[in-house]
Amino acid sequence: MSADRIFLILSFSVPVLLLIKLKGQHLKMEGCLAFGTPLLMLEDVKLMADMGLEGYRFSISWSRLIPNGRGSINPKGLQYYNNLINELLRHGIQPHITLCHSDIPQTLQDEYGGWMSRKIIDDFTAYADVCFKEFGDRVSYWTTLNEVNVFTIGGYDNGITPPNHCSPPFGTKPCSVGNSSTEPYIVAHNILLAHSAAVRLYRRKYKSTQHGFVGLNLFAYRPLPCTNVTADINAVQRVYDFYIGWFANPLIFGDYPDVMKRNVGSRLPEFTREESMQVKGAIDFLALNHYQTIHVKDSSSSLESKIRDYTIDGAFELIYTEEDSPPDQFEYPVTQPGLGAILEYLKQAYGNIPIYIHENGQMTRRNGTLNDTRRVEYLQAYIGNVLDAMRNGSNVKGYFVWSFLDCFELLDAYGSGFGLYYVDLDDKELTRYPKLSSHWYTNFLKGKDSKHSEIHQIEDKVLYSSR
After folding, report:
1. Cα–Cα 20 to 30 A to 266, which of 15, 29, 146, 206?
2. Burial grade of 258 (CB within 10 A; 0-12, 13-18, 19 or more)
3. Any bridge partners for residue 399, and if so which?
4. For a pLDDT cut of 70, what percent of the chain falls above it?
5. Is the pLDDT of residue 207 over 90?
6. What is the predicted pLDDT for the residue at 80?
């Protein structure tokens, strides 16, 4: 793909990908169908088609498709996903699928501890096999797991997200189970083995007929040193190694970054020779979730602690400066878009592997305003940043905006909104209302200027939700 071609996307709580055209460039968006009935799903797909989107990324719920984690397929779950895929295709919209967006069947968590056990490798691979078999004739782009680094840290170190594992003195609140010093590394290791097993299965059994691609999704800040002191500059590299290299290095080179092996020591699982060969090269693209720049301060002295977790092992401190966080704390700054820097790093560090930006978007208070000018400014800045990176040679295949609709967010429920469309939760019909950003993005994709009359109408219309 040349630097003049790009995919743009929109995201939602169940991530989705929308592929669109812009002035001879190909763009993708990510969104999601999270609210309401099958009829609303049809209406939402029609909204996407009206915007000119050509692709949509969504997550399959393992529990919906195979409730017990293995064995019998739920026919209603299978029908739901077939209906969605077929409806997308009917409108000329290409489906992109994520197999696991944090949740797994409760049966597997109860039986053997979920991702803490290597038993999940076989179960996940069998689940992926079902998806490839049932949907692969119409789906070419697969992501095995979403934001695996955040899932691992949040779920098994600080306990902020399910399954809420942590141990003293770590954790945002007391956890009933967990070991913050070891569990994140065990889970990450099992994720890598499960991901690579699914990729190898696809290549062996389906690639020759389906011709698809399989990738893995990571979260990333754009790290900047707090000062020009060498220690802070070196800490930036450790952020890259611990957030991205933790998963990308094994998949590209067959082993963890050297700094992780030094700092974590015996708590970091080792790949056997066979496992290293299985993991190395088991990726067709790397997917990235990114929202903001953050400053980094060296904390090497923390390595003297006898009890350590992932954060202490990294020997860095993440600092939100005034530059990183606007006064209201509910919007990301638009003055220093960092995607270009991350893409340049990935290009240099990992041989310019194909990249899909699966999430990127502006957070605002979910107070119902449709005049989201800050979101428009954010998208303009970051899309321009990505295009600049591509013209510098970055192998970007897709860009996703979070999100198509306002949705239930993982950390603050309905407190914030990322959507191009507002969803009125006080209306039993869950009516969707396009925001200014939706009109801007549609015009942008179609190569048109925003109409002043449209903007003025939106400025005068404000909705409020009691939730």
Report:
1. 146
2. exposed
3. 8, 357
4. 86
5. yes
6. 93
Sequence-ordered alpha helix ranges (H) in 52-118: 62-65, 75-90, 106-112
Lowest-confidence segment of 229-238, 269-278, 445-454 by average pLDDT: 445-454
The amino acid at 75: P
Q: Residue range 375-382: average pLDDT?
A: 94
- CA 236/CA 223 separation, integer angstroms: 6
| Torsion, Cα of 136, 356, 274, 149 (10° steps) | -110
Residue 466 pLDDT > 50: no
Q: Peptide bond before 169: cis, by omega within 30 degrees of 0?
A: yes
Residue 23 — pLDDT band, cuts 50, 70, 90? very low
Name which of 355, 286, 400, 341 is nearest 1 in CA terms. 355
Residues marked active site are found at: 147, 359
Classified as helix, coil or strand, 138 is: coil
According to DSSP, residue 115 is labeled: G
| Neighbouring C-beta atoms of residue 393, cutoff 10 Å | 12
**CA atoms of 289 and 228, how far apart (whole Å):** 27
230: exposed, middle or buried (Cβ count in 10 Å: 0-12, 13-18, 19+): exposed
Strand partners, 8: 399
Q: Which two tokens stand for residue 23?
A: 């002035």
The reported pLDDT for the residue numbered 251 is 98
Residue type, 406: D
Burial of residue 99 (CB within 10 Å: 0-12, 13-18, 19+) is: buried
The amino acid present at 258, given as its one-letter code, is D
pLDDT-derived band at 26, boundaries 50, 70, 90: very low
By mean pLDDT, which of 116-125, 401-410, 428-437 is the weakest?
401-410
Contact 355, 248 (CB under 8 A): no
Neighbours of 345 (CB within 10 A): 18
Opening angle at CA 259, ends 257 and 261, nearest 5: 75
State how far the Cα of 138 lies from the Cα of 82, in Å rounded to an integer.
Answer: 10
Helix%, strand%, coil% for the chain, nearest 5: 40, 20, 40
Opening angle at CA 359, ends 398 and 433, nearest 5: 105
Q: In this model, does residue 57 exceed pLDDT 70?
A: yes
What letter represents residue 71's amino acid? G
Residues 6+ apart with CB under 8 A from 428: none
